[in-house]
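Show me a record, fold above all:
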Amino acid sequence: MRNDDEVLFVLVTGGMFFGLGFIFIVGQLYLACFQLKKIIGCLSNSRGVLLRKPLMDDGVFGVFFMLICMGAFFMFPSKSIRCGNLDENDYLSFPRGLLSCIKFLYAAGVGGGVAMFVLFFGGKYMGWIE
């Protein structure tokens, strides 16, 4: 590192990457441990959930795959409804607090991914990474 601006860049983008990643992982654990049955019950008519439900028997990775798929359904609901993965009535009757929590967690995950790419390409530009 050469000057204070570079140190500040690393601290801000690295802190965002780790902070948002931590929020996403802890949120995923919360959803998997305490809210999964409620989420599955509220999406009982959605084809995308019914197709992926047998994967939950594969253990932790199956549960997290299911949560990531449902997060994608909720982040892009119009496309998911149009493709038939998400039932419109299930989406409209889904609890708003839980929906907001899921959308916040996945927005934090996307933000952490963006911060990771900014840190990587900034490091390449500044010559730290060859």
